[in-house]
Design a protein that fits this description.
four-stranded mixed beta sheet; 5 helices; 2 domains; single chain; Ribosomal Protein L25, Chain P; RNA Polymerase Alpha Subunit, Chain A, domain 2; alpha+beta; 216 residues
Length: 216
């Protein structure tokens, strides 16, 4: 898993008033949940762009006043109107201890179900995994090539090297659902074809009566 570096500084003042002032200056109030204590800091909002606007998961190296911390993002709060980052929570991690983190799935393959008219429906875009920091992948690949209409992939169907999936095994990750096209019966298709033929014949007759050339 790739690592993103974020530079910030320790907060000397806490509270709503201080947090509001930080946001006005373009900074984000943050906290690290550590093993021994929680650490409050601030960082420029622009430094979070590579962490937020990406489909993959990342580790984070925080540089705070010449002191470094290895962390993962736990939660991030956004303004309901302008989507500005209001607060970010991180958890400190250690090289020799497993970490729990949500990692996005990445779908690949041309499903036979989709080629037959089905539609891919993703129910769970991130899965919770546990593993050592060095073993954590940026995404979890899922090949749907052999998936037919009405077939699905559940957590229990998946396995990945060196990481443990923590979500319930019965939890559905994705399925190939029946689309409106695939759901049409042969009678409906035949009826639509007959209607189109009738409309075409009517249009041709009307054009001929009016002396208008009909396109072949």
């Amino acid at each position: 898993m790739k690592t993103i570096e974020i530079k910030g500084s320790f907060r000397t003042e806490l509270g709503k008033k201080s947090s509001k002032e930080l946001r006005k200056e373009g900074n984000v109030p943050c906290v690290i949940y550590g093993k021994e204590k929680n650490i409050h800091f601030q960082a420029p909002e622009l430094s979070f762009k590579n962490l937020v606007y990406t489909p993959d998961a990342h580790l984070v190296k925080l540089s705070l006043d010449n002191k470094e911390y290895k962390v993962v993002l736990k939660d991030m709060q956004f303004h309901p109107v302008n989507d500005k980052i209001l607060h970010a929570d991180f958890v400190e991690i250690y090289d020799d201890k497993p970490v729990v983190i949500g990692i996005p799935i990445r779908v690949s393959g041309d499903s036979v179900g989709i080629l037959a008219g089905g539609k891919l429906s993703i129910k769970k875009r991130n899965l919770k995994v546990k593993g050592l920091p060095k073993d954590l992948p940026e995404f979890l690949p899922i090949d749907i090539t052999e998936l037919k209409i009405h077939e699905s992939v559940k957590v229990g169907d998946l396995s990945f090297d060196k990481v443990e999936l923590l979500d319930a095994k019965k939890l559905m990750v994705l399925t190939i659902a029946t689309s409106r096209v695939a759901a049409k019966s042969e009678e409906e298709v035949a009826a639509e074809a007959a209607t189109e033929a009738t409309n075409a014949a009517t249009a041709a007759a009307t054009a001929a009566a009016a002396g208008t050339p009909v396109a072949e």
